[in-house]
């Protein structure tokens, strides 16, 4: 019985990093946009090329409990909650601060970097 439990536990530990990597890869693929540009020249030849662009309008979707990394945040800066009090921001608890990521306000713990709350479209 111990051998079965240990083998299942070992398999779970070995597979979990691959699952995280696949999820990150899918998120990266969603952020790219492929566009095919077709142009016809005056002499009748057609020029076709594919352009890959990053979607700048779509920021990262932050969730409570995730670890916040400022490299992935758009327009990262600390914000004063008093400025946006009418949009749902409140005084941060001790050891937390509000930061901006795109149009979202994210409450993060200073020591661990974990997200405590996310208020979408709080900053316009």
Order of helices and strands: HEEEEEE
Query: What is the tally of beta strands?
Result: 6
* Shape call: flat
Helix content: 10-25%
Which regions contain 5 or more consecutive residues with pLDDT less than 50? none
Number of helices: 1
Give the strand line-up of the largest sheet: 3-4-5-6
**Pairing-aware structural class of the strands and helices?**
alpha+beta
Largest sheet: 4 strands, antiparallel
Enter the CATH topology name of the domain at 59-124: Nuclear Transport Factor 2, Chain: A
Strand content: 25-35%
Give the structure's gist in a few sentences.
The protein has about 120 residues and is α+β, with helices and mostly antiparallel strands. About 25% of the residues lie in helices and about 30% in strands.
Q: What can you tell me about this protein's structure?
A:
With 124 residues, the protein is of the alpha+beta class. It has a domain at 59-124: Roll (Nuclear Transport Factor 2, Chain: A). The protein is 24% helix and 30% strand. A four-stranded antiparallel beta sheet has the order 3-4-5-6, with no helix packed on it. Strands 1-2 form a two-stranded antiparallel sheet. Strand 1 and strand 2 (46-54) form a beta hairpin. The mean pLDDT is 80.
Key terms for this structure?
single chain; 124 residues; Nuclear Transport Factor 2, Chain: A; four-stranded antiparallel sheet; two-stranded antiparallel ribbon; 1 helix; 6 strands
């Amino acid at each position: 019985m111990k051998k079965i439990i240990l083998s299942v536990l070992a398999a779970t530990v070995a597979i979990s990093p691959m699952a995280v990597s696949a999820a990150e890869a899918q998120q990266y693929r969603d952020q790219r946009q492929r566009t095919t540009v077709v142009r016809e020249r005056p002499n009748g030849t057609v020029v076709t090329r594919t352009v890959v662009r990053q979607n700048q309008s779509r920021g990262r979707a932050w969730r409570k409990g995730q670890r916040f990394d400022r490299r992935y945040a758009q327009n990262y800066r600390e914000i004063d909650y008093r400025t946006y009090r009418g949009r749902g921001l409140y005084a941060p608890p001790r050891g937390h601060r509000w930061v901006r990521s795109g149009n979202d306000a994210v409450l993060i713990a200073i020591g661990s970097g974990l997200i405590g709350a996310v208020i979408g479209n709080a900053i316009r």
